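Annual report, structural modelling task.

Input specification for the pyridoxal-5'-phosphate complex:
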Amino acid sequence: MPVIEMTVELQHIRAARERIAGKVERTPIVLSQSLSDRTGRPVHLKLEHHQTTGAFKLRGASNAIAALSAEEKSRGVVAASTGNHGRALAHAAKLEGIRAVICMSRLVPENKLDAIRRLGADIRIVGNSQDDAQQEVDRLGADEGLVMLPPFDHPDIVAGQGTLGLEIMEQVPNAASVLVPLSGGGLAAGVAAAVKGVSPRTKVIGISMARGAAMKASLDAGRPVQVEELPTLADSLGGGIGLDNRLTFAMCRDLLDDVVLLAEDEIAAGIRHAYEEEREIVEGAGAVGIGALLAGKVKVSGPTVLILSGKNIDMDLHRRIVCGQTIAERAA
Ligand SMILES: *Cc1c(COP(=O)(O)O)cnc(C)c1O
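The model returned the following structure:
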């Protein structure tokens, strides 16, 4: 058995839920008739894209900020973000009346950047990758004393995201499997800890895009590795897991039953299905569960839950995808 130096368990997730009660929505879960018909099993959609700020990241951000001391709050918080974590942190910081500085790479779409700016955070654009943005975060932490709250590799962030897993198991207690969008693994680690803490036999499966799947490459290598960051329709799943990852790599390794990778057209099919069959607008990262089922890449053996993790997609891009126009120029 590998030695786990740090982990997040059910008790931490239950504590997180009490801490963030009233600050985040308990999102609805609905049966997808079309996906149930297609797979022959009940398929439930956890509508987390209806969360305040449009993604689950508010859970982790609210928990991490609520857990700060008064002295830490007075210094403010800083993070690197591909968008949704920054947005969540900005919102949670504003509620708490504290300063937030968000660093991001030039790959972040304009709509996400604007949303964070409107929430009142300071924005720094640096470099072409999450790692470049992270260097600026380290500098601000060291030079200006801001408290660093990373997007996934932090116990309070993972515990906050795990509250989503608690809700799922209350809403669908007999779930046989839960499909989780996977990037840095904060969501997957938290959800898996909650789901398996309550129901050890329920399978938890991570879904990433094939273009730049850092967690999958790391799990295959047996240690955190770097992969090239590429543009993808699932832009919220971009970025590395950190070569010094101390929490989510080990949790994903120990708790996930499988990781599945999707091509860009399979992600597009998920977005299109969400819109036309479910009447839901989701971003690429939020559509990978649907995409995986449509592509037949996950074996459905019983009641299945898909997490629709976010809705913050550029609407011009969304229109082009649902119209079936080529996505080649983006994927090129
Ligand atoms: C951040 C994000 C993910 C991936 O979460 P990780 O904790 O980095 O694995 C999935 N979907 C959306 C919409 C996100 O914003």
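The pocket of pyridoxal-5'-phosphate is lined by residues 55, 57, 84, 151-152, 181-188, 236-237, 283, 285-286, 309-310 (CB under 6 Å).
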